[in-house]
Specification:
21% strand; five-stranded mixed sheet; BirA Bifunctional Protein, domain 2; binds histidyl-adenosine monophosphate; 426 residues; alpha+beta
């Protein structure tokens, strides 16, 4: 048997319904925040990620799916969404629009050649937002608030927001110099990756999963002491807006993020659910005021985040949250050939009137049809037989109370309208 590639998974059955429920909530939420949908290709020129995500990041140095296309061009499957959205912003000159800030959202598969483990896939789905053209700390806070609101809407309780700042270019440079000086005597004790990080991006040593247990890393200088006035004020304002939005957060100086492009605010939301395992970061993001310039030589500030769909679904499962995925309003049971013909347009009509309707396609007997209606958790069953047809009536059975009534066909829609609640929306 041919099996799925390592680190990938299939979506079907109940899980498929749950994912779609969450996707619908995401889409509806983005409508409310007035963000616009963007979609970029799944593969891009490899240089985009080398320049955009950063040569020294694990993602680019070890994890991209690279290939040469038939025209001998170097291509990569996208490991994340930000670089592609920035490329699109530049190529389509969205940054020149008057209606700034340009607030965008996206959803789709990303690819990283990582060692598969719980919460870590080679193909995974990210939902993300990227906002361009404004430096306002209010947007940093809004971006942080989006996943928090989403998790709350879905009923997740065990989440912790951690924020930090990396300051502007000047502050970050000062901090970098201080770290290089501080780490100098200890470099030889670091893991292989951190020895390279020391040369290329010493900030990343702080969040190394291997070396972060070392005392010298715990006592390393903190960015907060190297921030210039502008950077300090930006961070203070982000915190003020988070307070106004009543978002609980913790300032964690160890949050530096795995991608090179951040300036000022960085954040992560962690799952605090028992059994979640090591990959407990539900989402992450931050401000990146130099990235657009690095990719396309235009100065456009940006801020955004992305969340992993698989980790979100896992958190929901571990918190035993049942999503309202069953919404079959009516199951139609025709008895006999004539009734079947009659129910074909009837089912279509009910669907066009906004109900979720299914019917018997398997020619089951009545008893098995009742069983099937239970399996599908239908709210109502419509029974159509010779007698009903003759009298232009339908028999409706409430599948919860098991109560059965007969009504005139022309009254059917208004009866159902009264008795079936609209499916839930946010
Ligand atoms: P990231 O931290 O690399 O950031 O990924 C964001 C989220 O994607 C993670 O918190 C995690 O939930 C999920 N994720 C990452 N790798 C995997 C994996 N192998 N399997 C399952 N889930 C995964 C970014 O990608 C940035 N582009 C975020 C951003 C947007 N920053 C600014 N704008």
């Amino acid at each position: 048997m041919i099996t799925k590639p390592k680190g990938t998974y299939d979506v079907y059955g109940e899980y498929g319904k749950e994912i779609q429920y969450v996707e619908n909530i995401l889409q509806s939420l983005m409508g409310k925040y007035h963000y616009e949908y963007v979609r970029t290709p799944i593969f891009e020129a490899s240089t985009l990620f080398h320049r955009g995500v950063g040569e020294t990041t694990d993602i680019v140095s070890k994890e991209t799916y690279d290939f040469k296309d038939r025209g001998n061009r170097d291509m990569s499957l996208r490991p994340e969404g930000t670089a592609g959205v920035v490329r699109s912003l530049l190529e389509n000159k969205m940054y020149a629009r008057e209606d700034k800030p340009i607030k965008t959202w996206y959803y789709g598969p990303m690819y990283r050649y990582e060692r598969p483990q719980s919460g870590r896939f080679r193909e995974f789905y990210q939902f993300g937002v990227e906002v361009f053209g404004s430096d306002s700390p209010l947007l940093d806070a809004e971006v942080i608030s989006i996943p928090v609101v989403l998790y709350k809407l879905l009923g997740l309780k065990g989440v912790k927001v951690k924020i930090n700042t990396l300051g502007d270019r000047e502050s970050r440079e000062n901090y970098r110099t201080a770290l290089i000086e501080y780490f100098k005597p200890y470099v030889k004790d670091f893991c292989e990756d951190c020895q390279i990080r020391y040369e290329k991006n010493p900030l990343r040593i702080l969040d190394c999963k291997i070396d972060n247990k070392l005392e010298i890393i715990k006592n390393a200088p903190q960015i907060i002491d190297y921030l210039n006035e502008t950077s300090k004020q930006h961070f203070e304002k982000v915190k003020k807006y988070l307070d106004l939005l009543e978002i609980d957060y913790e300032v964690d100086p160890k949050i530096v993020r795995g991608l090179d492009y951040y300036t000022h605010t960085v954040f992560e939301v962690e799952a605090e659910v028992e059994g979640f395992g090591a990959q407990n970061v539900l989402c992450g993001g931050g401000r990146y005021n130099n990235l657009v310039n690095t990719i396309g030589n235009v100065d456009v500030p940006g801020v955004g985040f992305a969340l992993g769909m698989e980790r979100l679904m896992k958190a929901l499962e571990l918190e035993n949250i049942t999503l309202p995925t069953n919404h079959l309003d009516i199951y139609v049971v025709p008895i006999g050939e004539k009734a079947l013909d009659y129910s074909v347009p009837l089912v279509e009509n009910l669907r066009m009137n906004g109900f979720c309707v299914d019917m018997d396609y398997m020619n089951r007997n009545i008893k098995s049809n009742f069983k099937q209606a239970d399996r599908l958790q239908a709210k109502f069953i419509i029974l159509l037989g010779e007698d009903e047809l003759k009298k232009s009536i339908v028999t409706i059975k409430n599948n919860q109370t098991k109560e059965e009534i007969k009504i005139k066909e022309e009254k059917l829609i208004s009866y159902l309208d009264k008795n079936i609640e609209e499916s839930e929306d946010i």
